[in-house]
Write a sequence for this structure.
């Protein structure tokens, strides 16, 4: 079927090829499935849960597109290079990268080990750098394909409200996300002349395994809600919808921006009755 404005509207990522890292659970999973629903072929990267990744692949294929799972640790350069080789073999090209894989290893500063610091920085920041670099090389190799998209490639860096909200007890995580913000904007500045768009999403408290302790019990959820003016905990789908838009031509003039998806968490709700 030719791409028309109508079917682009229904399936805004039609005929595009996407890699979503850390896609076997949480936000990555929701983004990968939403991309399939939007018409993209999707590579589902995971590190340690092949069964969960295959379930995501099956769900994506249910939307009539191509999907496969690929195991790789995004902080390992050789593994990232192999992953992009596989993408070239199986999909021929890549149009969209969602650099989503990330983790927390929390500790008070007096107890935080160098290993915890390095692990979080290497997955959350170096991992995004490695994947973004390979995606940009791939976008350049393939060039602009106007029949597929107005831009030569899109990168979405998964950041966090903690790229701007300081977070005691999580200095490694907050530092990694602060790094993502300026990495994203610097990359965006560097490659925008080539019609490559780099942007980020900064989710707030989204109901996923990474923050289970913060929403699992009634008491914890109530405490968390005091930080969210909009009055509900976010769902992975809230972020997935933002990612579809940022990856689609509907956002073609959006370059180097962080889209905050947080129910107002960054509005300093503590100041609504104080200060
Ligand atoms: C963290 C979550 C946290 C949320 C809001 C996210 O980036 O991964 O653990 O609940 O920020 O604080």
């Amino acid at each position: 079927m030719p791409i028309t404005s109508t079917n682009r509207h229904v399936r805004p990522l039609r005929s595009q090829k996407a890699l979503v890292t850390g896609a076997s659970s949480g936000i990555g999973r929701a983004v990968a499935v939403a991309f399939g629903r939007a018409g993209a072929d999707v590579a589902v990267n995971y590190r340690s849960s092949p069964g969960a990744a295959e379930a995501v692949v099956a769900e994506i294929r249910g939307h009539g597109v191509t999907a496969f799972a690929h195991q790789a640790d995004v902080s390992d350069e050789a593994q990232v290079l192999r992953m992009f080789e596989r993408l070239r073999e199986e999909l021929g090209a890549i149009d969209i990268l969602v650099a989503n894989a990330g983790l927390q290893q929390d500790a008070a500063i007096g107890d935080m080990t160098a290993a915890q610091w390095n692990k979080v920085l290497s997955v959350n920041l170096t991992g995004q750098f490695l994947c973004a670099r390979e995606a940009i090389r791939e976008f350049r190799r393939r060039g602009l394909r106007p029949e597929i998209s107005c831009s030569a490639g899109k990168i979405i860096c998964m950041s966090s409200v903690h790229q701007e909200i300081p977070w005691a007890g999580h200095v490694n995580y907050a530092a990694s996300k602060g790094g993502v913000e300026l990495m994203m904007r610097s990359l965006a500045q560097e490659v925008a002349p080539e019609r490559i768009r780099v942007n980020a999403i900064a989710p707030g408290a989204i109901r996923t395994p990474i923050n289970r302790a913060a929403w699992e019990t009634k008491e914890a959820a109530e405490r968390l809600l005091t930080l969210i003016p909009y009055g509900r905990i976010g769902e992975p789908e809230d972020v997935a919808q933002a990612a579809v838009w940022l990856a689609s031509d509907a956002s073609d003039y959006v370059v180097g921006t962080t889209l905050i998806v947080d129910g107002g968490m960054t509005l300093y709700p503590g100041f609504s009755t104080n200060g």
